[in-house]
Amino acid sequence: MTQYHQEEDMIEDIAGGEFERTPVPQSKLKGWKSFLGMYAGEHAAGTEFVIGPLFLTAGVSAFDLIIGLLLGNLLAVLSWRFLTAEVAVKNRLTLYFQLEKISGKNLVTIYNLANGILFCFLAGSMITVSATAVGIPFDMPMPKLTDTMPNGVTWIVIVLAIGAVISIIAARGYDTVSKAANYMSPIIVLAFVACGIVALNQLGVGSFSEFWDIWGEGSDPFPGQIKYTFWHVVIWSWFANAAMHIGMSDLSVFRFAKKASSGWTTAAGMYVGHYMAWIAACLLYAVYLQSPEAQALLSTGQAPSVAPGPLAYNAIGVFGIIAVILAGWTTANPTIYRAGLAFQAIIPKVSTFWVTIIAGTVATLAGLFPAFAMKLLDFVAFYGFILAPIGAVIVFEHFFAKKYGIIKNYAEHAGIKFNKSVLFAWAISFGLFYFISIQFDVFLSFVTLPTWLMCGVLFLVFSKMFQKQ
């Protein structure tokens, strides 16, 4: 056995059997049911209680919301099935180790750090969501749409307690994360259905035309928000999880799948969560907007709060509190798990448990600041835009390396720690389209796909040039 393989085995033993730096063996592969529960739980979850209302603050119309979400979520499912799952079952490696083989240790360390931190911020926003439910019995002031800082000691204590529990669950590994999602997701889905039915009753809806009229032709966006059209809804919902599918983060999940067809299970998350749940949460917020409190805020030019806890509690009582708490957990758990894998790629000799605890700590600290949840539409678009282009490197290498004469896993093959082809491809594509977005005020999600495609093409071009040299 070589020194390299001895070190790999030692790392694997310390890591606790999560196969961070080796392909997942056949004996550890899982059927589609494991992924169905995880995706249904993760995407019918805490973000949905925030994103649904935020669509209303952006003034969407009925057609834009209902048909736009239908199409956008379909595109997301297709991305998972035919890109992420296909690559995952072929190589059975985490995103981080796969990228290390292509990019080299030094370059991928920077990516892993950024990836892990952004995932922690996303998980932190879900801890914020759960905290809005836990705080109800304590009469805790809820964060406003414009809040950025913690609003009191009660808020801080609750966020820290929730973050500790979520971190421990995530640190116990994929099996625990999957089991937690399977147990919680039916409860959460039932809660969303109940919230939607109760909200429809409170709104006096008795027919489809009355349901359609809730949004009508749309309205002006709330103060500080931009107007969402049909294409805003389609493209944003497609790339809401861009880092996970076209960004290849879910290689870390689907490497455990027996077949690439397990990628279809993401439809449970998209249509139960990102469709039914978003619309149900919209309905909850529509009820709240008719209240004297919300009307008073709107009359003074202020945006009413979108705190999920009170919205669910007003509809279905204590069950709503429980559902929001669990919903935050089922999103934060796998997100912290992914962040832990990113950090472990940087410090591979530290166990999975402890790097995930580190990730959970960062997420908990982020959860103290409501801005991550209150600006979730903008944050999700931004982090997908940053991370998705790197996924194009993996995808284009996987599908086109042989055709264009590119050496796969070039950094590993050449024994280099820094593959400049990857850096140049990402920096040029990111820099160009971010400039276009800022300079010409283009919605950031609109330039995510062009950035991804350009990065993949440039990677092939630069690889052809530099590998010959």
UniProtKB/TrEMBL annotation:
The chain crosses the membrane at residues 65-89, 110-133, 153-171, 183-208, 228-247, 268-291, 311-332, 353-373, 379-400, 421-437, 443-462. It comes from the Bacteria. InterPro entries: CodB. One of its GO terms (molecular function) is cytosine transmembrane transporter activity. Keywords: Membrane, Transmembrane, Transmembrane helix. One of its GO terms (cellular component) is plasma membrane. This is Purine-cytosine permease.
